[in-house]
Amino acid sequence: MTYEQVMNEVQEIFRDINDNPTINLKAETTSDDIEEWDSLTHIQLVVAIESYFKITFTADEIVSYNNVGEMCEGIVKKLN
User: Fold this and answer.
1) Do 15 and 29 touch, CB atoms closer than 8 A?
2) C-alpha pair distances (Å), 60 with each of 9, 18, 56, 74
3) Separation of alpha carbons 69 and 71, rounded Å
4) Domains in the chain: how many in total?
5) Helices within 19-58 (DSSP H only)
6) Which residues form the domain of 73?
7) Torsion of CA 15, 32, 60, 7, to 10 degrees
8) How does pLDDT run across 6-55, given as a tens digit for each residue?
């Protein structure tokens, strides 16, 4: 799966979890950019992403990602 494909799927997950179909993710998007993205939503997003892609993140990986782009890069690495 390519980075672009992962980003598109992650965007759909974000829209679903946040119940906001207008969310448009960019590589540099952070929790500061999305009003609905709080600590509980963060956990829901991680669980949904792990489930969808059938991967797991370590705690270190989760805290190391500074933005959506870095997370998507991590997903691509796990899938390939």
Assistant:
1) no
2) 23, 24, 12, 12
3) 5
4) 1
5) 39-53
6) 3-79
7) 40
8) 999 999 999 999 999 999 999 999 999 999 899 999 999 999 999 999 99
